[in-house]
Amino acid sequence: MEYNTTREKIIMPEYGRLVQNLVEFAITIPDRDERNRFAESIVRVMANCNPQNRNIPGFRHKLWDHLAMISDYKLDIDYPFPVNRKAIEEKPECVPYPTNKIKYRHYGHLVETLLDEIARMPESDERNELTKLAEGQMRRSLEMWNKDSLNDKKIRKDFDQYTNRNK
To answer: Which of 44, 67, 115, 148 satisfies CB 3.0 to 4.6 Å to 162 for a cystine?
Structure first.
């Protein structure tokens, strides 16, 4: 019995071994017209693997790019879209880690941003309403983080420190 672990590695696992075997067979077809028709069939099979993406713009183009990748760019057919190996295999830049320091990590960055906005607002009904909402969110965040240290005095103290108010 042959196990998949002993077989050749799949280039694009999302399409499975069947698609890879079809592409390998397509490379061996001598007639170009027949190879083109077979490649169209392979792309239809690939589209059926992800039917939820059919309405996404550029989906067909992406499938043809994937077909080229699976064949290691050896499939000699008339692609309906230009195939640029460099552009396809180009990796995006790494997303940098956040560099901002959060005063109290258990509240999170969004609560901290909200509290900064509240601190800049003049006294008004809108500010009082936002204060209540922010304190409610702080309570939920603190409760998720540590249920034992949950008390309203701590939340009020943290809120006042964030907004630089002392009462």
So the answer is: 115
Confidence of residue 165 (pLDDT cuts 50, 70, 90): low
Question: Which amino acid, 113?
Answer: T
* pLDDT 10s digits, 143-164: 888 777 777 888 888 888 877 7
Distance, in Å, from the CA atom of 115 to the CA atom of 118, rounded to the nearest integer, reads 5
With tokens 């990748």, the residue in question is 69
How far apart are the C-alpha atoms of 50 and 140, rounded to whole Å? Answer: 38
For 133, the token pair is: 């909402």
For tokens 């998949």, the residue is 4
Task: Kindly list the domain boundaries of the chain, sorted by start residue.
Answer: 9-89, 109-162
Neighbouring CB atoms inside 10 A of 99's CB total 5
**Tell me: the pLDDT tens digits for 88-112?**
788 888 888 878 788 878 888 888 8
What is the C-alpha to C-alpha distance for residues 78 and 35, in angstroms, rounded to an integer?
Answer: 9
Please state, in angstroms and rounded to a whole number, the distance separating the CA atoms of residues 61 and 57.
Answer: 9
> Which phi and psi angles does 46 have, rounded to 5°?
-65, -40
Convert 104-142 into a string of H (helix), E (strand) and C (coil).
CCCCCHHHHHHHHHHHHCCCCHHHHHHHHHHHHHHHHHH
